[in-house]
Every structure is written in C-alpha cells, then in structure tokens.
Amino acid sequence: MFMFSLNPLRLAVLSACVMSSVVVADEQQSQDSTLFIGDVIEVTAAKNSAAEAQLVGSVDILGRDQIKNEHVDVTMDLLKKIPGVYFSRFNQGIISTDIAIRGFNAEGSMPHTKLLIDGVPSNLHVGLSEMDALFPMELDWVEVVKGNHDARYGLHNLAGNINMHSRRDEAKEVEVLLGSFDTVEAQGYFGDVDDNFSQHYFVGARTTSGYRDHGDLDKHTFSGKWFYQPSTQTDIGVIARYFDYEADAPGYLTEQEAKRNPRQSASYAQDDSGDKQTRHVSVHLDHSVNQALALSVKSYWQQYDRHRFVRYTAGSSQQERLEKDQQFGVIATMSYVLSPDWLLTAGLDYQGQDNSNERFVTEGQNRLKQSRYWDFDYNNYGGFTQAQYRGDKLLISGGLRVDGFDGDFTNQLSGQQKRINDPGLTVQPKFNVLYELQETLNVFANYGVSFQAPTGSDAYLGDNNNDYDFSKNYGYEAGIKWQPLDWLDTRLSIWQQEAKDELTQKTDGSGDFENLGSTKRDGWDAGFSAYINQQWSGFGAYTRQEAKLVEPGESQVASKGNWLRGVPEYTATLGVIYQPIDVLKVSVFGHFQGDYYVSNVLQTKRFGDYSIIDLAFDYDLGWGNAGLRINNVFDSYHEYVYLVGSETIHSPSSGRAVNLSVSYRF
Questions:
Q1: What percent of the chain has pLDDT over 90?
Q2: Residue 18: pLDDT above 70?
Q3: Where is this region: Disordered (predicted)?
Q4: Quick one: how far is CA 60 from the chain centroid?
C-alpha cells in the first residue's frame, strides 16, 4: 500500500509536480473539484440567500436520480454510493447504522461527521447522525464534504460533513412497495408552487419483519414545508417534521452461530426492543439587502427521544436506556460581494442542548434498579469569516473559525454537579486553493484544523479537575480533477489527518473517554462519473486508507503502530446504468469494503470485508414508474463485529431481498 506523510512542504511539492506533468484535453470545465454521482444537477441556493465560498477538495453530490427509486430500512444506506463512505451496521433495532469517513470508525466512539438537514444540525448529542425521518421520495440531493477545511461548521465537523436537502419542487406523486421479509412501504409527496408562496407535504410509512428473527421494524413520518416571499428581496419559510420508529432487536451472536445460521436471533435478546421519535420545527429567512449584501438566518427547535431495552451477551444483564436530546439554535450567515472577483462570507451560530440520559438494570423489561440519571446542558457557540478570490484561472479562499462551549451537568442519583470543560475559544484556520491548468484540468489543495470535543459526562469537570485543551486534527489534501473526454469526469486526491491526545469513548458503556495519544490517518481517493451517451452511464470510486496509533503513551506502548479499530483498509463503489429504450433503465451497483480490526490492542484477526451487488429495473409507465429491485443479488454474507472482553460478538446483515414498487404521478 502506498502511504506517506503529507506535511505542508510535501503538499506544495506534490501540487507543483502535478501541475507540471499532466497532459490535458480541450473540453470546457468549470473551476471546481466536485464529483457528481448520477445525473449532473444544477445546485442553486434560494434566490435571496447568502452566497457561500466554493469548497475545494473531495466534495461529492448524490443526485435525485440515484435516490428517488431506492427503498431502505435506514436512510443512511442511501449514501453507500458516495466515494469513501462506509458504515457500521449494528442491526440492533433503533440503533441500526452509523456512518464514517476519512479513517475514523462508524461505531459512535468518536463523533467526526457533521449532519445537516436543510441546513439545520441533526446530530444526536453523542454525535450519531439521525436522518431516518427522511424517506427517499422526500430527498432532493445530498452533498458530502470530506476533510476538515470547511469553515462553516465546528461541532462534530472533525472529518467532514453531510448536507441533506429535501424537495421543494412542484409535483404530486404516491408510491407503494411490497418486498421480501414481509416488507410494505408507502410514500406520498405533494408540492405546490405559486408566484410568492409554496407548500410541500410528505408522508411515509414502512413495516418489515426483517432479515433476522425478532427484527420487526415499523416507522412512519410526516413533514410540511411552507415558504412565502413577501417581497422580491425576502424569503421566509417554516419546516415541520414528525417521525416515529419502533423496532425489535435480534441481538448479537457468536462467530460460529452467525456463520451457521445468520437469520437467527440470540435467545437472550428475546425481550430487546426500542422506539425513537423526532420532532422538528425550523424557521428560515433569506434577505438581500442589495445586489452585494445578503443575509440568511435559520432558527430551530427539535427533540430526539430514544428508548430501548438491550442485552449484549448471554452473561450480561438487560438494560433499559432512555435518552432525550432537546436542541435549539440559531445560524446566521452573511455574504458581501466586494467585486466580481472577491467574496467575503461570515457566520455566527449557537447550538443549545438540554438533555437527559437514564439507565436501568432490567429483567424481561421490568426495572430492578436505576444505574444512571444524567441531566445536562451542552451549548456550543461559534463563528467564522472567510475571503475568496476567483479569477480566470485561480480560486483561493482562506479564513478562521472559532468555537466555544458552556453548560452544566447534574448526576441526579448522587447529586454531583459539574461544569463543562472550557478551554476557551478554539481557533481553526482553513485554506483552499484551486488552479485551472486547462479547461479540462484543475489542480487543488486544502488545509484545515478541526477539533474534537468530548460528549456525555466526560465533557464536564468537577471542582477538583482542571480544564484541558481539546484535541485538534490537522488535515491536508491535494489532488486533480480531470475531464479527459467530454463524457468522463475523474478526480484523484491524497489526504492526511493527524492528531495528538485523541479521545475515544470506552467500550464498557460508562460514557467515559480514554486518551489514545497521537494518531495519523492517511489515504488516497480515486473516483469517476461517466455519461457516455443516452444509453450508457456510470460512476465508481476507490478509497485506500490507514488509521494508526503513532504514539499511544507509556501505558499502551505495546499498541504503538497498531491500526485503529473499526477502520476498513479500503472501500469501493461501482455503478453501471443501461437504458436500452427510453422507458426502461437497468442499473447494476456494487459496494465493497475491506476488513478491519476490532481492537486497538488485540490485532490477530480482521473482520468485516464484503462484496455486495444490487440490481434494479425501472420502467416508465408514463403516469408513473414500475420498479424491481434485487439487493445483494448473490446473497453474500456480511456482518458487523464488535469486541466484548476477549470475545467477538457478531451481527449479520441482510441477505438477498427482492421488492416491487409502483408509483403514480398526478
């Protein structure tokens, strides 16, 4: 594997070498590094919204054509087509899947990916991304930014961010689905757009018995969006959403049990189940003061409730866990066009949380005693300023972001009170540069600093504790975006992130953190999107990565140089779309992953590699679409594996599934 240290000097040398050695074609290409997955779409902001500086680096946009006909139990699976994205599929009821990028793991032990839905932060307090309230029919497009060079966000924006945008078009359609494992789904969207007022409604429901025994799932959602333009300079909107999700949990198996019969449920998990709800209201205001100055403000209130019964092994006790995250905040951004070449952007945001976390020791869902009752405020405030120059060939931007925290913690069982760790303002410089060598070739580089803030009880300090500085990540990336043919876009980049005093959540369920020491993550990404003609198109990507303990400290000296747990050595995607006639589309999609270690210390065996092929047929009926989907065509075995003590526990993922869907457009 080709890995090397990518410090700023080597970054500059690499950029210079790339700029001097690549032969280019003559087709027109804009100054960007974005790769589109599926049809190229025109991404436009609201008419009066504040302009944003252009991001340079590994930015991917998943278009609606790759979303609208998908059908998934968990919304996160819609992102599997995006380069460099990988998952931990726990498959345990309401705790089902989490996402990871850039050499971090997807187990929730280290929050590193910021999620935003329609511009509103949507991570749980612990950093997990909560997007299940969005069904495929309601989604318009998704942007994924990998790296830590984006100045817009601070909290959880350690390795990148995901922006999900819901539909606001004029359309009326419904869809029903029947599929394997007693799956039934229904979706409906209504959008009406007038001159100065638009309204949009979505309703969705899905129920399934699940691939594994004791894996029933039932979810439904409703949303409404209303936008009004009182003048040509002002847009005002309200978004409201309600979501409910109930599921049983099949539990974890031994390695032998999982391989012998992956569809079985663990006998000790027969009483494991849970439910979660999302309630959301946000107000959106965009105003153009004049042709140069624009303001955008978003305010929101949302609550995430999670309640579940869980037992990890036959030898452990069942726990009842209740978590309530009540979040509220304001995000304000401003843009000022200084000249045709210069843009100034700035922003302020406040993200408040009023949370509680309770646990009980239970047996058969009957409470025996309470083991945890945390009540805490967790508040993040931050801001950024950024200047961008965009000339005929050169795009360059630089800026600073600062973040701070306040809050209090009360242990309601012991009466202990703590204050949040406050190291003062955390400063994060950001830098992006892109140069257009030819009309079809761009070279780019970026640099950024991001921070890691602990969550839960360890984010707070008692009277006898001293404040400590947050761990910072220093990230670098350099690459090329090349269009060698008028129907082919390609991108290649190398990247690295380094950190000292990196924190990770302990695996004992205490909510405490431990210091890993110094870490380094690096790798390279290659991707393409192809639009050969009206019949053939496709996309693909390959990411190779390493994540290692560089200096773990004297107490863990034996693990020096080890891989960090839960990080696969590679991920890959490949999609081919064939349209033999105007009304028929055939799609083949593959997603692949290398294996990973389940411990930072014990590294005798790897788990988790897989190769999955999906097949889809879509027929345009004129008044709607008829779809046939076969997921995991070859019924390949794949699983999530976790280490408890010295033994691994295994959760098999779904085998082959077939579903039929029909939609109707009014």
A1: 85
A2: no
A3: 254-279
A4: 12
Residue type, 603: Q
240 in a domain, yes or no?
A: yes
C-alpha to C-alpha distance for 24 and 403, rounded to whole angstroms: 42
Torsion sign over Cα 455, 504, 118, 174: negative
Domain-embedded: residue 231: yes
- 87 neighbors 107 (Cβ within 8 angstroms): no
Q: pTM here?
A: 0.93
Q: What separation in angstroms does the CA of 578 have from each of 141, 324, 533, 557, 583? A: 22, 46, 10, 54, 11
Provide DSSP, 216-250.
Answer: -EEEEEEEEEEEEEEETTEEEEEEEEEEEEEEE--
**What distances in angstroms separate CA 631 from CA 44, 96, 538, one per listed residue?**
33, 18, 18
What is the Cα–Cα distance from 27 to 485, expressed in whole angstroms? 7
Paired residues of 205 in beta bridges: 186, 220
- The CATH number linked to 150 is 2.40.170.20
CA distance 92 to 446: 38
Span 253-303, pLDDT tens digits:
999 999 999 999 999 999 999 999 999 999 999 999 999 999 999 999 999
- At residue 260, the 3 state secondary structure works out as helix
Angle at 278 between CA 332 and CA 143, to 5 degrees: 50
3-state secondary structure labels for all residues of 508-561: CCCCCEEEEEEEEEEEEEEEEEEECCCCEEEEEEEEEEEEEEEECCHHHHHHCC
Q: Coil, helix or strand for 21? A: helix
Over range 610-634, report the average pLDDT.
97
28, pLDDT greater than 90: no
Name the β-bridge partners of 464: none
Instruction: Give me the number of domains the chain comprises.
Output: 1
322 belongs to a structural domain: yes
Q: Dihedral through CA 36, CA 496, CA 19, CA 52, nearest 10? A: 50
Asked if residues 161 and 58 have their Cβ atoms less than 8 Å apart, the reply is no
Cα distance between residue 651 and residue 641, in whole Å: 6
Instruction: Give CA–CA dist 157/144, Å, rounded.
Output: 12
Strand 234-248 with 273-288, pairing = antiparallel
Domain assignment of residue 402, yes or no: yes
Q: Are 164 and 139 in contact (CB under 8 A)?
A: yes
Q: Please count the other Cβ atoms lying within 10 Å of the Cβ belonging to residue 231.
A: 10
- List the domain range (segments joined by +) for residue 260: 8-665
